[in-house]
Design a protein that fits this description.
Blueprint: H1 2-42, E1 45-53, E2 59-68, E3 71-78, E4 82-85, E5 92-97, E6 100-105, H2 107-121, E7 127-133, E8 137-138, E9 147-149, H3 150-163, H4 166-182, E10 184-185, E11 188-189
Parallel strand pairs: 3-7, 4-8, 7-9
Antiparallel strand pairs: 1-2, 2-3, 4-5, 5-6, 10-11
């Protein structure tokens, strides 16, 4: 009888765990699509999850690069929940959410390397970069350099778009094409969305 109870409990646990895992996967996928969709709405072109030459005979990974009316925007997207403690001088940043705590490397240095890689390929186009946090994160001690909230970034890029001519974007296209030619998706050459 005890074996039957254990089997029943395991069966119930499996029936609960599988849908919960599937729900988490679907939510994360929708959030990812939402980020992509919002970036495509405010940009002329978007590259996502690709590699560029780093200038030292290697490659550097970029999460996003966007061609906008103000130039090329390099974006690292962070979706963390809780209070984020980080500064320009700290090597590691910490996220605290209730009893949960984790650290990650200061993302500014990596962002600056990605901006430099893009600037090397696009010296005639303005290039800027941001570390965009979702609104689930909070910076109670102030925001470090290059940090912006995703919604704020979207609003800023929307505001700058109407004042700029599409002729400006067309002037940037040869440089953007040069960036496209240099970009690869890990293991799949030129598998990029335009």
């Amino acid at each position: 009888m005890a074996d039957t109870d254990i089997q029943s409990a395991l069966m119930i646990a499996a029936l609960v765990a599988v849908p919960a895992g599937l729900l988490i996967f679907v939510i994360k996928r929708r959030l990812s699509r939402s980020v992509d969709a919002q970036l495509r709405n405010i940009s002329q072109y978007v590259l996502h999850d690709f590699l560029l030459p780093d200038g030292n005979n290697g490659e550097i990974h970029l999460e996003y690069a966007m061609l906008t009316t103000s130039g090329i925007v390099v974006l690292d997207n962070k979706d963390v929940e809780g209070n984020v403690f980080g500064s320009d001088a700290m090597d590691e940043w910490t996220v605290i959410d209730g009893n949960n705590r984790f650290t990650f490397q200061n993302p500014q240095r990596g962002l600056l390397d990605r901006i430099a890689a893009v600037k090397a390929l696009a010296p005639d186009v303005p290039v800027e970069g941001f570390i965009a946090f979702s609104d689930r994160g909070r910076f109670s001690k102030g925001q470090p350099s290059y940090v912006i909230f995703f919604e704020t970034l979207i609003e800023q890029l929307k505001e700058s778009a109407p004042g700029q001519s599409t002729a400006v974007v067309e002037a940037f296209l040869p440089t953007w094409d040069k960036l496209l030619d240099a970009a690869t998706v890990k293991g799949v050459d030129k598998a990029l969305v335009r």
